[in-house]
């Protein structure tokens, strides 16, 4: 049997596809909200990044990851990757607003 026809593999991959779609939708919603935060900060003259908030988010996410049996190092890297992109957006919004 080839990989592409194994029924168990097909079922698992179908589930992975649904989960990947959910991740994309969740990320899209998160970026919509952070876009609004970026605009709010630019209007009020607040800095694009908030390192204290980021520290608290990392601690929280690492604890949630442990509870969920997900590697906390991976959870931290994933959050940092997203937040770095958000801060880049915020810097751009602030520049455009200046
Ligand atoms: C969204 C914010 O801006 C930045 C991005 C964050 C995020 O993506 O969660 C967190 C902190 C800030 O560095 C915020 O300040 O809440």
From TrEMBL:
Q: Which SUPFAM superfamilies match?
A: Chorismate mutase II (SSF48600)
Locate the Chorismate mutase domain: which residues?
3-94
Q: Look at the named UniProt entry and state the broad enzyme category this protein falls under.
A: isomerase
Report the EC number(s), separated by commas if there are several.
5.4.99.5
Is Zinc among this UniProt entry's keywords?
Answer: no
The signal peptide annotation in the UniProt record is: none
Q: Which UniProt keywords apply?
A: Isomerase
Q: Which PROSITE patterns does the annotation name?
A: CHORISMATE_MUT_2
From the UniProt record, which GO molecular function terms apply?
A: chorismate mutase activity
An example Gene Ontology biological process:
chorismate metabolic process
Alphabetized Pfam families for the sequence:
CM_2
Respond yes or no to whether keyword Isomerase is given for this record.
yes
Fetch the PANTHER family from UniProt: CHORISMATE MUTASE
Q: Provide the protein name.
A: Chorismate mutase I
Question: Which species is listed as the source?
Answer: Luteococcus japonicus LSP_Lj1
